[in-house]
């Protein structure tokens, strides 16, 4: 007889899903480019950046956030040992780690001549590696991933993007762990996600469409919610892509239409990201871990979203996404 999995792996080990509490569903501890850092940059100071991360995540825990979901994978500088070191100093916060590959175009060079990259009839090595991260642990540690992450952006469904997406889908079939997909809603990349994952037999209810909150097309988003996908309204604070009022208004309207049970909230922020020149960060004043609690939730409540709907998006939906039969 099937039973529901009610524990989720975190950086500090398994946690009951009922204890995840208020959860931000798309935040990074670090986003790094290790090769470029080693060759060109003197910005990275390990001790200083770890201390800064501890301070930022401690502030987040103090406002009542209990869990962050960190989709940092290959292509984003994943280092779970460093994240574990930060997490050890922030005992009131759970961090959930991911496995997968982040690319907009080609597979990483490591995979280009392995598996079907070398000969089409060879097995896909990414599937076994992703499953290993879920079942055994990441990077030789006992820290296990709890979900998969892949991406599709302005390049569209390139052969490399499709290869990673199908590998993620097949690893999901083996493990049952859910899937998060980075999207570019301006190009409706979600249609490719729907088709490819559907061909692999993935239930849309196990898939989070990240970054669709960059769109104000409520009808488009409601259509994906109606199919069962979880909508990532997860870039609050990245105002140059879409401003605060538009992001809030989209969530308000989707809640009014009854889709609060299909949305999660986050910032896609990080304690440190080397993709952005440091002196540009002041131009993103709202892009921080506290913006949702300080500004977004009050604005939602003022505009008619109920506290129950807020709790649905921040507590219930994340918990249920990690629970599986």
Question: Could you explain the architecture of this structure?
Answer:
It is a single chain. The radius of gyration is 19 Å and the shape is globular. Helix 8 links the parallel strand 9 (207-210) and strand 10. The chain is 39% helix and 15% strand. The chain starts with 6 loop residues before the first strand and ends with a helix. The chain has helices at residues 34-40, 46-62, 80-88, 109-112, 125-135, 159-175, 190-199, 218-227, 244-256, 291-302, 307-322, and strands at residues 7-10, 13-16, 23-24, 28-31, 67-70, 94-100, 147-151, 179-182, 207-210, 230-233, 263-265, 270-273. Helix 2 (46-62) packs across helix 3. The protein has a single domain (7-322), classed as Alpha-Beta Barrel (TIM Barrel). An eight-stranded parallel beta sheet has the order 3-5-6-7-8-9-10-11, sandwiched between helices. The chain has a two-stranded antiparallel ribbon with strand order 1-2. Strands 4-12 form a two-stranded parallel sheet. It is an alpha/beta fold and 325 residues long. 45% of the residues are buried.
Outline the fold blueprint:
Blueprint: E1 7-10, E2 13-16, E3 23-24, E4 28-31, H1 34-40, H2 46-62, E5 67-70, H3 80-88, E6 94-100, H4 109-112, H5 125-135, E7 147-151, H6 159-175, E8 179-182, H7 190-199, E9 207-210, H8 218-227, E10 230-233, H9 244-256, E11 263-265, E12 270-273, H10 291-302, H11 307-322
Parallel strand pairs: 3-5, 4-12, 5-6, 6-7, 7-8, 8-9, 9-10, 10-11
Antiparallel strand pairs: 1-2
């Amino acid at each position: 007889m099937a039973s529901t999995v009610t524990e989720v792996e975190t950086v500090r080990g398994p946690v009951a899903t009922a204890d995840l509490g208020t959860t931000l569903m798309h935040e990074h501890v670090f986003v790094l480019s290790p090769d470029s850092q080693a060759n060109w940059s003197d910005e990275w100071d390990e001790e200083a950046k770890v201390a800064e991360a501890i301070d930022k995540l401690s502030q987040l825990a103090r406002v009542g956030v209990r869990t962050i979901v960190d989709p940092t994978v290959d292509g984003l500088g994943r280092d779970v040992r460093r994240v574990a070191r930060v997490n050890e100093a922030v005992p009131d916060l759970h961090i959930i780690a991911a496995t997968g590959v982040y690319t907009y175009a080609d597979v990483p060079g490591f995979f280009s001549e392995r598996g079907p990259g070398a000969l089409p009839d060879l097995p896909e090595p990414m599937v076994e590696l992703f499953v290993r991260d879920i079942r055994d642990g990441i990077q030789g540690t006992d820290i296990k991933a709890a979900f998969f992450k892949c991406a599709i952006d302005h390049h569209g469904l390139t052969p490399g993007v499709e290869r990673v997406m199908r590998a993620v889908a097949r690893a999901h079939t083996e493990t049952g762990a859910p899937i998060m997909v980075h999207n570019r809603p301006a190009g409706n990349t979600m249609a490719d996600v729907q088709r490819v994952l559907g061909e692999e037999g993935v239930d849309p209810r196990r898939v989070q469409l990240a970054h669709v909150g960059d769109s104000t097309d409520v009808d488009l988003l409601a259509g994906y919610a109606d199919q069962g996908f979880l909508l990532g309204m997860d870039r609050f604070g990245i105002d140059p892509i879409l401003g605060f009022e538009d992001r809030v208004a989209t969530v308000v309207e989707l809640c009014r239409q009854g889709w609060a049970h299909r949305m999660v909230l986050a910032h896609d922020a990080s304690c440190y990201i080397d993709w952005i020149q440091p002196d540009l960060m002041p131009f993103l004043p709202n892009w921080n871990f506290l913006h949702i609690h300080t500004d977004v939730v009050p604005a939602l409540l003022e505009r008619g979203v109920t506290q129950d709907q807020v709790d649905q998006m921040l507590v219930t939906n994340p918990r249920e996404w990690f629970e599986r039969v």
